[in-house]
Amino acid sequence: MKIFYCSNCQAQIFFHNYICNNCQHPVGYVPALETMMTFKKTEKGWQSLDENGLYFKACKNYQDYHVCNWMIDIHENTDLCESCKLTTVIPDLHEEKNIEYWAKLETAKRRFLYMTQRLKIFPRAKKNPDDHLGLSFQFLVPTDDQPVLTGHANGLITLNAFEADTVYRETTRISMGENYRTLLGHFRHESGHFYFDTLVQNSKWIDEFRQLFGDERIDYADSLKHYYENGAQENWQENYISAYATSHPWEDWAESWAHYLHMISTLDTAFYTGMSIQSQHPNNPELKFKDCPVCSADFTLTIKNWFALSYSLNALNRSMGLSDAYPFTLSDKVINKLHFIHQILLENINKKSIDTMNGFTWKN
């Protein structure tokens, strides 16, 4: 993620901020400009405090509930920002705890959407239930009579709102035998199913997909049943990023997609913070950037930098008595899968003009 600064006092502001912690001016993210901005409230609207002095209005969920910090052009005929438009169902706000869950879910969703902007695959909202090229989210609270399963179906991503509760999520992580489970990870994984449908299925990439991930046409329900009854195959680490990835080619793709986003987003932040790692031993990896890692043409360097960064992050965490920040191993076959995802996105991001494909509209 890029580094943002307050245009009033030049202090650093963060993607999730509502105010500048130094000068106390309101701040917000302007998706059309892909940047955080500082504002003063006027009768005409929220005026940016940069040299342009542009006017915006805050998303309704910013003003009413403080669960969003995205801004809207003053002339737009809408009360919801580009992120909040994608959420169609939220928890019952009469329950105070649900506002906290909703806020955490939206925060994770916006961070996920930020990278889709950088990759030029920001989704549009579904026009109707049968519109498989649009994407929508629903955040549901389970009850004793109606459990909620996190998942994706035809462009609708459902998340169990209890995943926003740290204790619930950690308990589920342990019971499921997972070494990593986050709200942001849920968005990245479930979006993988959506982007498979829109970027890979019925495209020129499908044959190569089947060579790398397997034939997705095998029965999904039977595959999941076999996985939950028998677990992952022996030595799964040689071919898959996680045990769950072994259950079906769709899940292998979704897990690999999520890990690609983990990797690129973290490297992107490292790049913009000016991080580098100079090895103190010839056998240790180094972190050196030639350019921004978001769809860099040099994927080999991207992987080398990821090894260096994740190795160092894990070592630092261990020094503080914490679990590994990135508790995964990338085999050669997993790297090939990540490279495949990279190639698809690189082709998209390198388009030279305004274009539309599979429901996405982007501009370089």
TrEMBL record:
Transmembrane feature ranges: none
Domain spans labelled Zinc-ribbon: 4-94
Source superkingdom: Bacteria
Protein name: Zinc-ribbon domain-containing protein
Organism expressing this protein natively: Acinetobacter qingfengensis
